[in-house]
Amino acid sequence: MNERLVHLEQLLQKRFSGLAHIECALNEVTMTVQSVNYLEIAKQIKVLPEFGFEQLMDLCGVDYQSYGDGLWTGQRFAAVSHLLSIQNNWRLRFRVMAEQDDFPVLPSLTGVWSSANWYEREAFDLFGIIFDGHDDLRRILTDYGFIGHPFRKDFPVSGQVEMRYDPEQKRVIYQAITIEPRELTPRVIREENYGT
Questions:
Q1: Is residue 196 included in any domain, yes or no?
Q2: Residue 78 needs a FRET pair 20 to 30 A away by CA distance; which of 47, 56, 63, 95 works?
Q3: Which tens digit of pLDDT belongs to each residue from 2-35?
C-alpha cells in the first residue's frame, strides 16, 4: 500500500472519526459520509491545509439497486465525487448516500466547488438525484420533455416513445417506438458449412 494513501487515511480518520467511514482499497482512499454532514465535511477538506482538496474533478450519480447481484442492503442512490489536492499530491473518492430511495435529495456542492454545477445537473438528469441549493438544476443531456431518468436500474431498456422531426408536418413529433426483432447470432455461426 502506498505510504501517502495510508497517511491520508490516517489524517481523515483523526479528523472525521465517527462522522465518516474511511477505507483504503485498490490504491484509493474512499470517504463515505451521511448527507447531513456532507456539506460541512466538503468545506473542511477543501480549506484545511492538511487535506487541501481544492479541485473537484468529477461527480457522478450511482444507482445501487442491483449492486452485488441484488445483495446490497444500503440506500439506493449515491453521489460520488473525485477530489484532487495539487499541493499535497493526492486524490480522494468522496461518497454520500441519499437517505430516501423514492425521492433522493442531497446538498449541492456548487457553493464549495463551482465545477460541481454541470456534474450535478447530469446526475439529476440521468439518475433523478435532487441537489438542494443548486441554482440551475435542470436537464442537461436529455430532452426537456423526457420522462424519467435513463440511468436508473429500473428504467425500461426500450422506451415507449421517440422524438423525431417530421418534414411533412414541419415540426418535432413524438411517436411510439417500433423495434423490429432481429437475430443477434454472428453470421459465421449461421453459415451451414462453417468449420468443414
A1: no
A2: 47
A3: 898 999 999 999 999 999 999 998 889 999 999 9
Q: Over the stretch 73-90, which tens digit does the pLDDT of each residue have?
A: 899 999 999 999 999 999
Single-letter amino acid code for the residue at 160: Q
Residue 186 placed within a domain: no
Three-state SS at 10: helix
Let me know if residue 58 belongs to a domain.
yes
Question: What burial class does residue 23 get, using C-beta atoms within 10 Å of its C-beta: 0-12 exposed, 13-18 middle, 19+ buried?
Answer: middle
Residue 100 amino acid letter: Q
Burial of 60 (0-12, 13-18, 19+ CB in 10 A): middle
- Report the distance separating Cα 41 and Cα 61, nearest Å: 19
Q: Is residue 59 part of a domain?
A: yes
User: How many structural domains compose the chain?
Assistant: 1
Residue 6 neighbours by CB under 8 Å, 6+ apart: 24
CATH code of residue 60: 3.30.460.80
Q: Which string of DSSP letters, residue by residue, matches 44-87?
A: HHHHSTTT---EEEEEEEEE-TTTTTTT--S-SEEEEEEEEETT
